[in-house]
Amino acid sequence: MDSRRPNGPNVLITGTPGTGKTTLGAELAQRTGLNYINVGDLAKQEELYDGWDAQYQCPILNEDRVIDELEDTVNPGGNIVDYHGCDFFPERWFDIVFVLRTDNTILYKRLEQKGYTGKKLEDNIQCEIFQTILEEAVDSYNKDIVHELPSNTSDDLEANLDKITNWVDEWKNSH
Ligand code: DAT
After folding, report:
1. Which of 31, 64, 94, 150 fits as disulfide partner to 12, beta carbons 3.0 to 4.6 Å?
2. Any known ligand binding at 117?
3. Cα(7)–Cα(140) distance, rounded to whole angstroms?
4. Are 141 and 97 in contact (CB under 8 A)?
5. 114 annotated ligand binder
6. What tens digit of pLDDT does each residue of 65-75 get?
7. What does pTM read for this prediction?
8. Which residues of the chain have pLDDT under 50?
């Protein structure tokens, strides 16, 4: 057992909205027994906000409060954290980082289905085209622990579940 992470590894799943973080993260939690944390949902429940973004018509995340709220859960390990950003988490929190990637046409349809329109829809597509979250992850964490995963089809989902489940098993065997 790893004395720093008695409950297992911490896995970050990040990527543009609509790339499939919640779908993957929730199923992964079922398969691995790790604790699933959806940062967006947590922020909503606990109102971890700091003002209102008039351009995007959404509340602004209070990142410090998110960290305070999660610190005691994340420190002992054993978590899957899902969020569409990654540069404000402490680097020491994560043992591995997965960045989900989706082709533009597929992402466009998924975001439309989620009710995204206009500037919000276009900006999220741009975010994926410019690999914004991938670059954020590579800039924020050791490159060796950052992995890009295709997330277009149900076969991709299965492959990603297998890959991460195997990684978690190996981590547990070697710690
Ligand atoms: P996110 O949490 O990144 O915003 P989501 O998990 O809510 O994304 O997924 C958005 C939609 O896409 C949802 O209808 C499920 C679907 N989806 C997710 N991953 C997929 C995959 N690998 N193949 C096909 N559809 C997928």
Report:
1. 94
2. no
3. 24
4. yes
5. no
6. 999 999 999 99
7. 0.97
8. none
